[in-house]
Amino acid sequence: MKINEYQMEALRTASGMNQELPMFVNGVLGLCGESGECADIVKKHIFQGHELDAEHLAKELGDVAWYLAVTAYSIGYDLETVMQMNVDKLRSRYPDGFDPEKSQHRKKSDI
């Protein structure tokens, strides 16, 4: 499956959202919630002695992907474009790969 095909599949189940608020509100808040669920799985593994449940983590990552797809669509972007923008930004920031010095001393305009 290609990434924009995934986005269209995700949008198939985005109906019924609160129409009084923009779709991106649900999307951004959902990203926070699902990312928190991923963090909780890792926290329990590291600090509470739980086995790392990779399948559960993968399912939560799928939920993160769903909210990412919906949020991108709601602001007029397809996922391929969002991902390409990120690659372009990181190549510009770190042309030779990650560099802690460049990370610590980024330009103010580098978001």
Total helix count? 5
Tell me, briefly, the overall form.
globular
- CATH architecture verdict: Orthogonal Bundle
Would you tell me the structural class of the helices and strands?
mainly alpha
Runs with pLDDT <50, length 5+?
none
- CATH T-level fold name: Helix Hairpins
How many domain units?
1
Query: What do we call the CATH homologous superfamily?
Result: MazG-like
Q: SSE order in H/E notation?
A: HHHHH
First-residue to last-residue Cα separation: 30 Å
CATH class, please? Mainly Alpha
Tell me the β content: under 5%
GO molecular function, one term: hydrolase activity
Keywords: Hydrolase
Pfam family, one: MazG
Protein name: Nucleotide pyrophosphohydrolase
Can you give keywords for this protein?
111 residues, Nucleotide pyrophosphohydrolase, MazG-like_dom, Helix Hairpins, globular, mainly alpha
Structure explained in plain terms:
With 111 residues, the protein is mainly alpha-helical. It is 68% helix and 0% strand. It has helices at residues 3-12, 23-47, 54-74, 79-93, 100-104. It is globular.
